[in-house]
## 1
Amino acid sequence: MTDISNVILITAMDDGACAHSDHAHADLINDFLTRHYQGDRLNKVDHHGGGKKAMPLDMFIGAIDYLDRERLLEFYNQIPWDKPDRVQLMIQGRKDNGFTLYKPLCSEAKD
């Protein structure tokens, strides 16, 4: 039996961009998931939005088996998001009726 959690991460465009990655802060989440959840990771999907305009954000989704929500949230809250007011993490566990929204604990943007 599996215990899948659906995960959606939305960030400002290129949050944490650096010489090595346009999505460095989301990459931190993926590194965490890869290490702790048998290579699972979130996939970038904002380019799949319909319409004539691009979505002005980065969106990542994934289905993670046996996710330790508290452990992920602890890690998520340690990331130095460039625009924390634009970051949203949503998780829906197998027994949840809907997604729960988590904002970073640090809500002030960096200068």
Note: The chain has a mean pLDDT of 90.
## 2
Amino acid sequence: MSSRISSIAAAASILFAAACAETTPTPPAPGHEAARAIAVPAPTVPAKPADPAAFVGRGAREVAEMLGEPRLKRRDPPAELWQYRAERCALDLFLYTGRDNALTVRHAEVRPRETSFAECLERIRNGGG
């Protein structure tokens, strides 16, 4: 009977060791810190946003990636005005420097107001900006 207990004890210790080995995370190899990063999709402006508020809270880099460089940039610290123009309309974005010194859109408007935002944005995206 003692050989049977010894066999059971040996099998239990092997199973215990295997279970521990499976739950112990393996650290990434040196130089592979990017492997631990989680990919998070960047927020996008909807294809047909309802109003300019779709840009509020977005950073300068994100806006530039979506619309390109503005036709006009006016610096008036701590703010910047970015203006995108298209036929019969302009999109004005007011970016302010935050605590981290990054520019973020705090206000956006379309001029003239008779033009729909969606129509103006479409014109800007099609090269009018």
Note: The longest strand covers residues 89-97.
## 3
Amino acid sequence: MKTYRQLRTTRSITKTAGRAWRTIAACTLALAASAGPALAECDTSICSGDPCTITGTHYIDCLCDLNFGSKTVTIAPSATLRADGCCFSIEAANLIVSGTLRARAGCITVTTTGYVTTNIVSNSAGTIDVSDGGSADITAGGAVTLNGRNVDADNSAGYAGDIAIIGSSVSGTSAVHADGGDGGDGGNLDISSTTGAVSLTGNVTTNGGGSYGWGGYITVDSADALTVGTSTRRMQAKGASGGDGGTIDLTAAGSAAINGDINANGAGTDGGYGGDISIDAAYFSCATVSAITATGGSGGGDGGYIDITATCGASVDCDMDVGGQGEMAWGGDITIDAGAGSGCTALVTANSRLEADSSGTDASDGTVEVSGCSVTHSGVFDTRNTNLDSGTNIVRYRNNFTANAGSSMLADDDGGNLIYCRCVDTTPADGVCDTPAACVNSPTLNGTVNPAATIIPTAMAACS
């Protein structure tokens, strides 16, 4: 692990402390302004009946709790509830946002026993707006469906805000974003489900902005399946010019399907390290239309990390890239583990190119490592540059490894293509390879392997 990872950790701690201070400042601002504007209100009679609909524009008192009890509440398409610079909360059985909930540089808390929905009616806003460094916290006992325009915590003038969403399931096409600006880092997005799936098919972003803005944090935890993006919608935590990429951490109790780009790239001629992408699921797949990248910026930025762990099975049908760029840049690491159970195969298709090679004077390459009960490879593993320094491809398998015709394994001469197989262990079966060490099933190498593979029989349990 490279020294710069320690620097990233230090920066992360500093950033978290900064966010805590901004939260305290926001609360102080809310308390100082608690009297609110002359026409401010905190009155649940703005929504009469059940179900009920709020119309018009309402300036909400700072720290107001609009508790509608067991009602189903709709924010009408033309309606706005507004408390800029302040915090307010809404409690209801169900909430439908066709209009606007707004607390720029403030905070909005929504709590329901049932569902929360944002939608667009006749070109309405369908927006939750806590831009300018604010925060939104949505907790639903039922499903959260985001089919409006935006959940917005951007800040064009500095650090972005934070968004937290919890529901029995979470889905929608809405954009969810907390992008920084003018040198500000991206914010925090934390999305989770308690029983159902998470499907985020809109743009989800925590990009840094301006010069040296770091990408933010995206955390998604699904209690069932997870779907991310489409061919035109993506998930990003990019750094701005000179800024590091952020952190994207995706977890699913069921399958994880990546159908759009995931990007945690660093940026800029002043460096900018690639960020960290972690995906942990029962089964992993990515589509041809997607790419998963954590590359370094062009001015000497090191590549980041992509770490994919599946309980059983991974189908890699997309490109992945953690390359460094520029003088003395380092490539990062790609790790894909498809599990050790019987039938748990890591399948890398002909559409896939997994890259950890770097470009630039004195640049060094990283590592691509793929493991599973069996591994089938038809694409490209590329950790080789003209400097031939450090780049390594590693395959670990217990049953079979097949590199099909047309595939490539390209590594640096001092790194190599290392293939670890389960060794013969029969006389006696004691967890130690028999002598001379040999693979239970030798690898099948029909593609290009440069340099020649080093086969390493290793004591491993058989696929369970």
Note: The helical segments are 3-32.
